[in-house]
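Hi R.,

Here's the chain you asked about this morning:
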Amino acid sequence: MMDRFEQNLMIPCYDTDVSKLLKPSSFMNYAQEAANLHASVLGFGYDDMMVTRSAWVLSRMHVKFLRHPVWREKVRITTWHKGPERLFYLRDFKLTDEKGETLVAATTSWLVVNIDTRRITREVGLDESGICRDNAIETSCGKVQMPADADRVLSGTHAASYSDLDMNGHVNNAVYLIWAMDVVNPEISMSRPLKEMMINFNHEVKPGDNVLLYTACSEADGEQVCFVEGMIAATEENPERQAFCVKLIF
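And the predicted structure, written out as tokens:
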């Protein structure tokens, strides 16, 4: 059984930014698709999970950008399943250039959720032969929180709509990073490449939800560190809820 999945890609123009560098959200899309393809090979892909009315839900992600690939560059994404860790299942990724040098390293933590009850389940057909224990990043992504003493500023709002949604009917995980990058001061986001990001996905966002985007940025040791927190606005039916929180290092 194949314990690693590899896919060759060439960076298209629509996945790059004003500097012709790969957008961080585009890497997340590449990783999501590679994970889906590999899970299908291992017997717990989308169609397999639907048999038990369950689905993979990305909960946490830690990414290090050692060098952003550029427009037209040929790269290879590699992913492997690392097995369970407490409530989570771990999966790592590497994006490498034609010389085999690592450009991007990432580790992710996933939950399995019953799509009818929205409760966590353990109904996964795991096979030990499909598990690889290697680490792209040594430790799994921890909890990300806006610092208690941060100067938290409301920097934007976004109503979830058609272009934000995936085939499950809620906001796709890469979109949260797009929202976050959009509310960071352009003097930071458009002049410095993102070096590292850690994100927690804490509550699904559905069509029509209004998300309040709060930022808090500071500089330390020559780096810009920005936290972005997305809060689903309160309604008559539901209180305010945290959709995501991300730490960005430029």
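The two ends are 39 Å apart (CA to CA).

Let me know if you need anything else.
M.
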